[in-house]
Specification:
Layout (H helix, E strand, L loop, with lengths): L98 E2 L2 E2 L2 E2 L2 E2 L6 E7 L15 E7 L4 H7 L13 E12 L2 E9 L26 E9 L1
Parallel strand pairs: 5-9
Antiparallel strand pairs: 1-2, 3-4, 5-6, 7-8, 7-9
Length: 230
């Protein structure tokens, strides 16, 4: 037991009032209200955020004494092949009759014409030239291209002669006369094919007017429309 009086010397049942003007010291806060700042983060090296660098491979010992420095680096990646070019469009097909001597066939209202295979060039006399007389002038004529499968009757109609049953007057017959050039302004009459005759049904090929006639390599064929009366 100590020698101090119990209860600080204050009788039991007696209230204790501190002296006027004396303020007791505040009690310390509870430990759960105490806040301490965390320690600062360590300083990071900025080089840690740089992309990884390709390591430099030192040269082998036997090349270290060279007067130049050789930098070894990994082989570059192979270049990818270029993209494949698109396949060309196939050429459009054209039938052989679509052109003649390099010229395309005409088109009529959207319908293309196809040329026959064989043609001949005929020299058609266009004026009232009479080859029976000695002539000193060259007649008016035009070169015309005809298929060799055309009949003589169809040729006469294409040149403007009426058909045998359409002749006016009926007594007049139309035909086609072959004229031969003799040179020096002289001409001679050849065969005459009348409209409605048996020969009028023959083709130009059967008459001997082939595709070789009319060109530079063969003697031309001279023809004129012939009229005669019964």
């Amino acid at each position: 037991m100590s020698n101090e009086p119990p209860n600080g010397g204050v009788p039991p049942g007696t209230a204790f009032y501190p002296a006027y003007g004396h303020t007791p010291a505040p009690a310390p806060p509870p430990p759960y209200l105490t806040y301490e700042y965390p320690p600062p983060l360590p300083q990071l090296d900025p080089r840690m955020f740089l992309p990884p660098q390709q390591p430099s491979i030192p040269p082998p010992p036997y090349m270290q004494n060279f007067p130049f420095h050789v930098q070894f680096s990994p082989a570059p990646l192979p270049t990818p092949p270029p993209p494949a070019s698109p396949a060309p469009n196939p050429p459009s097909w054209s039938p052989p009759g679509a052109s003649l001597l390099g010229q395309p066939a005409p088109s009529f209202h959207g319908v293309d014409y196809l040329y026959p295979r064989h043609h001949t060039v005929l020299h058609v006399i266009m004026d009232k030239f009479m080859p029976l007389d000695t002539a000193t002038r060259l007649p008016k004529w035009e070169p015309r291209l005809f298929p060799t499968g055309l009949t003589v009757a169809e040729l006469m109609e294409r040149l403007g002669a009426p058909a045998a049953d359409e002749a006016d007057p009926p007594a007049r017959h139309y035909g086609l006369m072959e004229v031969h050039e003799l040179g020096e302004g002289r001409w001679a009459a050849g065969q005459v094919v009348l409209q409605g005759s048996e020969q009028a049904g023959k083709t130009l090929r059967e008459m001997g007017w082939l595709e070789t006639r009319g060109w530079e390599a063969a003697k031309p064929v001279w023809l004129k429309i012939h009229e005669e009366s019964q």
